[in-house]
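Build the 3D complex.
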Amino acid sequence: MARHTTKATKDATVNLRLAKSERQLCERAAERAHLQLGTWMRQTCLRAAEREAGTEERRARLLDFIQRARSGEVAPAKEHAEAIALARDDEWKR
Amino acid sequence: MEALSAVVDTSVLLRAENGDAQALDRLERLVAGDASWGVAAVTLYEVLCKGSAPKTWREFYRELFASCEVLPITEEIALAAAEVNRTLRTPLRAPDALIAAAASSVGAILVTADEDFLRLPGLAIELLRPC
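Done.
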């Protein structure tokens, strides 16, 4: 991720309460990744946050498209839909 | 594969392409909602196999399929679809049988605009009203 190529000042802290077993689980994952626990948790949380942000942006684009299709701003694809419907009958004969 | 709330049949996407408000409303609710939903992989093939698809709709599908579960046609699903069609007097079209089996495999309601699925006993169906 590009975010990790420049050294940002990391002066914000988050207190995280974990059960002993949860901490051990995270420690084992960090060991497997050859990272310190804090580094592993930071990278893992950032990846999840970025994925979540991407998901929300995609959802917004999809909803915008649907609204524009409903309003007629996006042209229907009637010829294509008809071609697919015909193909369903012709190419997949019972 | 985790359980899904709904699997969307190809027929719903074709109705959406025609500008059908009911199909677009249903897709909107699925996209906006938090429940997991999906499509069968064969639906991707069906809506993307023709060159006549406008670029706007192809891009829409690319994002739509990235935002939901795409159910692969596994051995289990292929066998279930074959079993269904063997027992029907008039079999379903092959993609429909595979879509129905995929929906059943994850315990999902099949959202469809195709009344033909009503012939399948035991399949949970949400049928869009005819245009």
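Residues 37-71 of chain A form the longest helix (35 residues).
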